[in-house]
Amino acid sequence: MVSNTIQCGFESHSGHSKYSCHSVHGSSGGSLVPMTPLDEGRAAVRNRSARTGFLLTWLVVAAASVTGCADLRSLAAPPGARPGVDVPSQSAVGSSMRLGTPELAPGGQGGYTFLRSRADGSPVAFDPCRPVHVVVRPDQEPAGGRKLLLAALSEVSAATGLQFLDDGTTDEAPGSDREPYQPERYGDRWAPVLITWSTTAESPDLAGGVLGRAGPYAFGSDEDHLRFVTGSAVFNGPALDTQLRQGEDDKAKAVLLHELGHLVGLGHVADPYQVMFDTNAYPLPSYRAGDLRGLETLGLGRCFEDY
Question: How far apart are CA 260 and CA 262, in angstroms?
Fold first, then answer.
């Protein structure tokens, strides 16, 4: 089993903001995109996890119709995984039909990188044939924060074709040791992507001017079969509240776009005119050409038949 965390955050110092990443050991750790009426489909797709005998990786740097997904049937869990303990008790058979189509990315300047790639160069990504379930903890949410979050997630969805499914609110607190499978809280499935607004007292990783941290959780029987199955994003509620109250909406949105880019698998780039640049010297309230090409590629990722 491989388990490590790459934490990426957006730090603000002396009027400038810089993104940084560091690796830690252990496992660790989205939200509402009202693009289609999905309430009736919330429980229809069950994604699966495991804790032993195969690869599990947190990359901590995120809705839709389930039409096109195949019927559910029982599949064997990877070796070493205990159904109902380490992984959900049954595996949902996937589909080869993507739930959405990424918008055609523009040409021009600007590159992109991925948090993790396979040996053939393809990026590890969320399964585009399954919806990405999301819950939001509303505590410490800044005034206007939900509207901003919806706008940012809508941009991610449009650029990737990923469909985010609103599972409502939660009282789950953020944490670097978040479990990807929490049957007592979320039922017999992968825990949904968690988005929280937090404080430095609750989330020490936000100390020192950090405005947000986010990233996905990768699962697979081996490196070639890794895919993201859940994730989390935590934002500095009081700091973003100050920005929004001061009319700095573009700065606040740039934070959300950058962290949600990490959530779905984008890494940093050296181009200051992309949202995924590691220093937000020029707040960008929308993804640029390089960002969009990377997001489109992530949205064209593999579909999987198990878990």
Answer: 5
Integer Cα distance of 134 and 38 in angstroms: 12
Q: Which runs of E-coded beta strand occur in the chain? A: 4-13, 16-25, 55-58, 132-137, 164-169, 193-198, 210-220, 227-236
In the DSSP assignment, the letter for residue 140 is T
Residues 257-283: tens digit of each pLDDT: 999 999 999 999 999 999 999 876 677
pLDDT one-digit tens code per residue, 81-117: 788 888 778 776 666 788 899 999 888 778 999 999 9
SS3 (DSSP) at 5: strand
> CB count, 10 Å around CB of 54?
22
**Structural domains in the chain plus CATH codes:** 4-299 (3.40.390.10)
- Which residues does 15 contact at the CB level (< 8 Å), separation at least 6? none
| C-beta separation of 135 from 237 below 8 A | no
Q: Who's near 74: CB < 8 A, 6+ residues apart?
A: 90, 91
| Helix, strand or coil, per DSSP, at residue 46 | coil
**257 vs 252: CA distance, rounded Å:** 9
pTM: 0.78
The residues, ordered by sequence, that sit 6+ positions from 178 with a Cβ below 8 Å of its Cβ are: 27, 28, 29, 58, 172, 191, 194, 232
Residue 207: CA count within 13 A, CB half-sphere: 5
* Residues 5, 26 contacting (CB under 8 angstroms): yes
Of 20, 28, 21, 22, residue with least CA distance to 3? 28
